[in-house]
Amino acid sequence: MILNSMQDIVTHSLKCKDANSGYMSPGALFMGSLAGCKILTFMKAAKFYKVEFSDLEVEVEADVRVTENIDDTPFKYQEYDEIRTLYSLKTKSDISEIEKVISLASKFCTVNIAIDDKIKQTFSIEIL
């Protein structure tokens, strides 16, 4: 799931596995919610630290394992092992300043807070 600061949503192959459903899966919606929350909180934290930037894009991807069926249904459990976030942006600020913004933003992004602590989360920064 990729979101940019203009709130454009780009869905690549995030549709339900049901043929021709045309809808995003709950997992894709979750990743979109996480990316959107990270954008909004990044923007607030950057304003607080007076870090100027443009063309912010946040890409979130996860390693998901599909395990056994839930009870006697055809539905499967999905377990997240790792969530990786790429922040791409134009800025004249140092990487350390961007890391400080991301650190603060991750502490008040409500979707991020709701993620189980057992799920590894990493981020990287790309200065354009």
- Average of pLDDT: 81
Share of helical residues: 25-40%
Shape: elongated
With helices defined by DSSP (H or I, 4 residues minimum), what is the helix count? 3
Taking the sheet with the most strands, its summary is: 5 strands, mixed
Fraction of residues in β-strands: 25-35%
Going by helix content, strand content and strand pairing, the class is alpha+beta
Oligomer: single chain
Distance between the termini: 19 Å
Order of helices and strands: EEHEEHHE
What does this 3D model show about the protein?
This protein is α+β, with helices and mostly antiparallel strands and 128 residues long. It is 34% helix and 34% strand. The chain is built from 3 helices and 5 strands. The chain has helices at residues 26-49, 95-108, 110-114; strands at residues 2-4, 9-10, 54-69, 76-90, 120-127. Strands 2-1-3-4-5 form a 5-stranded mixed β-sheet. The radius of gyration is 16 Å and the shape is elongated. The protein starts with a strand and ends with a strand. Mean pLDDT is 81; it is low at 1-20.
Structural descriptors:
elongated; 3 helices; 34% helix; five-stranded mixed β-sheet; alpha+beta
